[in-house]
Design goal:
Helix content is 40%, strand content 24%. It has 477 residues and is an alpha/beta fold.
């Protein structure tokens, strides 16, 4: 049984949960301990005490610790990638790629630990020195989703530790395996004082709520649903804690008449259906200009027919299973809803039978949809894409921005004029030109606008805005 990690020790939980392979429901990935409110409070208390020591550690010590963690992750990429794909359902290539990204994130922040700089400013008063420095926030609660079970924890945990904070980490219930493996590496390879890093697996109603409501937790970084994010945000703001939230998207990919058709189809297939469409940056709305619409839809249908949906670990698989029965039911519900609203299912959307029992769904394409339909307003989080036909570029831009979300957006065009204008006028936090809406660099800021994000950006040097607090000191010379 895989235990929780609290105050430097592996401890049993109040109960356990089985981790089931979505590619083969008969395959049990492992049994994982579930923490309760009492154990979560113990982890918070341990982090609160240990953070004082970690804050005093030299930048070089913190850098070396993160570098060792990153080195081991990269050395074990194949093993960890297989574990990730086995429990989450993305293809083995995608699983290994995610593990590599996690390792690179730790390596990046190993460098950032050495580069955290302050400022010395001239005062408006004679004989006074002004210094601006950054200090750790304290205990950081980290709550992560199931769709990127090692990369998202890495890009939250690494900067938290790099800048001198202590961590209490709660992973998603569906994917404890990757989180546990990452935690075991941190616990063993990082040489952190006991209590600086803690893993508490368990339900949000117990573990998550305890984290969010504790006055000893000075910052909470959350990625997940809008509803949960809003609840967390209100709880943190009520007690004056810092909060950072990433809550999904309804991302548009605009296809203009002048787009390279083959390139546009490749971009759409990748953004809409890879990782089984279970990416908050995925392009679920395909906004297509009238002149290329029919050719684009025909080419999409042809390419979709060639996609191999199968066991995540099988060679040649393009799209793995949906992560769970609940998520599969949600995907099917929205496909049916889209058709009831007037859309036309032109490809996919069918339950598939494979050699092993799993949550297999063929990627779905729904045409003849309108921006006002629920299928174009609400996040589905599956291999389901809708097509919205528009008359011209201005209507395409207006449609792309017509959403309560604002995480990522994309455009396929050979026009420098339209590409430049779209980058400027898109209401998303991240804009892609002729590349998929899903897929970002680990050293660049990640985040959106409107209902997608709240608080400071994640990743890159921008991460310091959330994980540190600015102090201004005045000294009479």
């Amino acid at each position: 049984m895989h235990k929780n990690f609290i105050a430097g020790s592996w401890v049993e939980g109040s109960s356990t949960r089985l981790n089931i392979n979505p590619s083969d429901n008969n395959d049990i990935v492992g049994e994982y301990a579930l923490a309760d409110q009492v154990q979560t409070t113990q982890a918070i208390d341990a982090a609160h005490e240990a953070q004082k020591l970690w804050a005093k550690a030299t930048a070089e010590h913190r850098s070396d610790a993160l570098d060792r963690i990153g080195t081991e992750i990269l050395a074990r990429r194949d093993e960890l990638g297989m574990l990730l794909s086995r429990e989450e359902g993305k293809t083995l290539a995608e699983g290994i790629g995610e593990v590599v990204r996690a390792g690179r994130v730790f390596k990046f922040f190993a460098g950032e630990a050495l580069r955290l700089a302050g400022e010395k400013l001239p005062s408006i008063r004679e004989g006074v020195d002004v210094e601006v420095t950054r200090e750790p926030e304290g205990v950081v609660g980290i709550i992560t989703p199931w769709n990127f079970p090692i990369a998202i924890p890495a890009w939250k945990i690494a900067p938290a530790l790099a800048y001198g904070n202590a961590v209490v980490f709660k992973p998603a219930d569906l994917v404890p395996g990757s989180a546990w493996a990452l935690s075991e590496i941190i616990a063993r390879a990082g040489q952190l004082p006991h209590g600086v890093f803690n893993l508490v697996m368990g339900p949000g109603s117990k573990v998550g709520q305890t984290l969010v409501s504790s006055r000893k937790v000075r910052a909470v970084s959350f990625t997940g649903s809008v509803q949960t994010g809003r609840s967390i945000g209100m709880s943190c703001m009520e007690r004056g804690a810092k909060v950072q939230m990433e809550m999904g998207g309804k991302n548009p990919l605009v296809i203009l008449n002048d787009a390279d058709l083959e390139q546009a189809v490749s971009v759409a297939i990748n953004g809409s259906f890879y990782s089984t469409g279970q990416r908050c940056t995925g392009s679920s709305r395909l906004v297509v200009e009238d002149g290329i619409h029919d050719a684009f839809v025909a080419a999409m249908k042809l390419r979709m027919a060639s996609l191999k949906v199968d066991h995540a670990l099988k060679s040649g698989t393009d799209v793995g299973p949906v992560v769970s029965q609940d998520q599969l039911d949600q995907d099917l519900h929205y496909i049916q809803l889209g058709c009831k609203e007037g859309g036309r299912l032109v490809a996919g959307g069918e339950l598939l039978v494979r050699d092993t029992p799993g949550f297999y769904l063929s990627p779905a394409l729904i045409t003849e949809t309108q921006s006002s339909m629920r299928i174009n307003r609400e996040e589905i989080f599956g291999p389901v894409a809708s097509v919205i036909r528009v008359k011209n570029y201005e209507e395409a831009l207006e449609t792309a921005n017509d959403t309560d979300f604002g995480l990522s957006s994309g455009i396929c065009t050979t026009s420098l004029k339209h590409a430049t204008d779209f980058k400027r006028r898109s209401s998303a936090g991240m804009v892609m030109v002729n590349v998929p809406t899903a897929g970002v660099d680990y050293h660049a800021p990640f985040g959106g606008r409107k209902g997608s994000s709240y608080g400071a950006r994640e990743q890159g040097v921008y991460a310091r805005e959330f994980y540190t607090s600015v102090k201004t000191a005045y000294t009479l010379a």
